[in-house]
Every structure is written in C-alpha cells, then in structure tokens.
Amino acid sequence: MSNNNVIKVKDLTKMFGDFIAVNAINFEVKKGEIFGFLGANGAGKTTAIKMLIGISHPTSGNATIAGFDIYKNTEDIKKNIGYMSQKFALYDDLTVRENITFFGGIYGLSRKRIKEKSTTLIKELGLEDVSKNLVGSLPLGWKQKIAFSVALLHDPKIVFLDEPTGGVDPITRRQFWEMIYKAAHQGTTIFVTTHYMDEAEYCDRVSIMVNGKIEALNTPKKLKSQFNVESMNDVFLNLARG
Question: pLDDT (tens digit, 9 = 90+) per residue, 79-91?
C-alpha cells in the first residue's frame, strides 16, 4: 500500500449475532482526497464509520487510520481525526464562542491557541455579530458550518462527516462544499457520507455499499461510464436493483 494512503481497510467485518452488518470491506483513501461513502439506510455505512473512528470494535479484519491501528491505537486515532455528525455536533445551550472554546479544550489546545482559533474562525464565517448568541438560536445552515469548522480546530489529518448537509437549503449546501474543498486543498482528508447523489459528483472517489458490502468504488466519472448512465443517482439505482 502507498504511504500516501491515510486510511487503509482490509476485510473489515462487523457482526451482530448472525447478522453481518459490514461484510469484509476493502478500500484505501489518499491524503487530501474527498472520499464519498454512500449507501442506503441500513447498508452498513454508520457501522463502518464507528469502527474506523475507534468507537466500535470490529469482529474481524484490519484498518489503520492516519497510521494508527484501530485495535491498538484508538486514542491516537481520536486525536488525529475530526468528526461531525448530523444528529449531534454542537451544544445548543452554549454560545458560538463557548462551543469553540469547549471543543478546543476537548481537543487539547492551549488557551492561547483556542483564543486565536476562535477569533479567526468567527471572522472567516462572518459571525462577529452573533458570536455571543446561543447556537440553538441560529439557522441549521450556520450550525453545520460552525460544526465543520470546529471539527477542524485541532488540524486533524482526517475529518469524518456523517450526512453534513442533511436538511439545509441548496445555497448553504454549496457553501458547505466550498469549505470542504478548501480543507482538502490544504491537505485534510475528507471522508463524507451523503444521501444526496448530486453531492457524490463533488467527491474525488466514491464507494457504494449495498447490504454490508462495497459493490462499487471509483471516480464518479468512471462509475457513470461503467454503468453507462449519466448521473450518480442512476449508478446507485442500478446497484440497488442488483
């Protein structure tokens, strides 16, 4: 495997009793790549991500994240990744600045560094006028952009984004993807799940899971050519039909 691969997965499997949730999946992700991890609900995406970020123990198989083994180095993995969940990313009862300060502390940043990062982040997002407002009072789109920025606070090598644009309007989605491109351009690897098939077009490469297995993995252009279709949605439908 190339040293340029920051995620390496070999035959990774997760079983719950007799049920195989993730079935011997294999893939690699390069540094600075935007990697789309797609699949319908129940396909095994979330279970796979939980194993990769060190919060669920695999049944079998191996993986390294940022050079760290998922069995032996879970704490090192957590220090080198950022994670943003659609369901929970920020505390609604804290202000914007308090959220940044809190997560900066969780990530082990010094007070000086947290202050510097807070000032920069608030300015870049244009939040000077609302930095003292409770996050719960802000529109969902703003919350998502703040949450992504917070996930990048400690300069992680990899950021895992789980349905980051769910429920936001098309303009905010486009702005969010501009932030993703910027982070990737600066060398951060982006591992993103999405159910918006048009967003799969923005990824460098895409994997598609069906019933716990990766059934397709390539660039969007090559996948569309392989299935002789014009959109990633058509690729997904072809695979779903079997």
Answer: 999 999 877 779 9
Q: Is 75 exposed, middle or buried (0-12, 13-18, 19+ CB in 10 A)?
A: exposed
In this predicted structure, the answer to whether residue 176 has a pLDDT above a threshold of 70 is yes
Is 189 strand, coil or helix? strand
Residues with Cβ within 8 Å of residue 211, at least 6 apart in sequence: 23, 43, 44
- In the DSSP assignment, the letter for residue 8 is E
The Cα 218–Cα 26 span in angstroms is 13
Give 144-181 as a DSSP string. Answer: HHHHHHHHTTT--SEEEEESTTTT--HHHHHHHHHHHH
What is the tens place of the pLDDT at every residue in 51-106?
A: 999 889 999 999 999 999 999 999 999 999 999 987 777 999 999 999 999 999 98
Rg (CA), the chain: 18
Q: For residues 190 and 184, is the Cβ–Cβ distance under 8 A?
A: yes
**Tens of pLDDT along 152-168?**
999 999 999 988 888 88
For residue 79, the SS3 value is: helix
- 41's CB contacts (< 8 A; 6+ apart) are none
List the beta bridge partners of residue 189: 158
Kindly report the pTM of this predicted structure.
Answer: 0.92
pLDDT the model gives residue 3: 62
**All domains of the chain in start order, with CATH:** 32-43+84-241 (3.40.50.300)
